[in-house]
Amino acid sequence: MNRVSLGAGSLGLRRLGWIAAGLLISGVVLAADRQASDEARETVDGLLGQVEQRLAVAPDVAMAKWNSGAPINAPEREAQILERVVVEAQQQGVDQQLARAFFQDQFDASKAVQQQLHQQWQQASQPPFDNPPDLASDVRPQLDTLTPQLIQSLHEYQSLEDEPAALQYFEDNAARAVADHEYAEALEMALSSLREE
Ligand SMILES: O=C(O)C(=O)C[C@]1(C(=O)O)C=C[C@@H](O)C=C1
């Protein structure tokens, strides 16, 4: 009697073990299979695209400043942008600390590209460019157009924080964008506060 019930007990335990293992495996498979929603992908693609678009303006800034001799670092302009960023972030319910850190990253990334280009031009004894873009009338307005778009994208991005698949999609695509980029270190800088989220 004892032996029979012992046997049944150990069989039950073993069966439980198999069931637990089965559940664990299917859980892992399901989690790996879960994909970011179309909406989440759109948000991430949009945000990454806009960050790249903003960084793509940096060579024009560099050219304008190469000709004019204006310093790369323009703290008063950064302060002016941040002032607007804080107001718009507040209106849209974007975390202000994130918005500030994110825009500071964009400035730092732009300065890194500008410094790299100025260094190259210095070494190549580059003369002033013919028809350089004008900082005030051509270049800064492009950046100003992107500012509210970026804040809107930050707002959408923030809503993804409880979607691990979306954050993974962001990570994968951010890493790919950096690896493929001409100014990889600068793009990495531009994305750093988002990747620390
Ligand atoms: O507007 C400029 O002068 C720029 O260099 C562009 C920019 C920016 O990314 O917005 C970058 C660095 C400056 O310190 C200020 C602003």
UniProtKB/TrEMBL annotation:
- On whether Transmembrane helix is a keyword of this UniProt record, the answer is no
Swiss-Prot/TrEMBL keywords:
Isomerase, Signal
This protein's pathway = Metabolic intermediate biosynthesis; prephenate biosynthesis; prephenate from chorismate: step 1/1
Care to name a GO molecular-function term for this sequence?
A: chorismate mutase activity
Q: Which SUPFAM superfamilies match?
A: Chorismate mutase II
The Enzyme Commission number assigned here is: 5.4.99.5
One Pfam family hit: CM_2
Keyword Cell division included in the entry's annotation: no
> Chorismate mutase domain: from which residue to which, for each copy?
24-118
The biological process GO terms on file are: chorismate metabolic process; salicylic acid biosynthetic process
Write down the NCBIfam families for this protein, in alphabetical order.
CM_mono2
Name of the protein: chorismate mutase
Q: Which organism is it from?
A: Halomonas cupida
Species classification? Bacteria, Pseudomonadati, Pseudomonadota, Gammaproteobacteria, Oceanospirillales
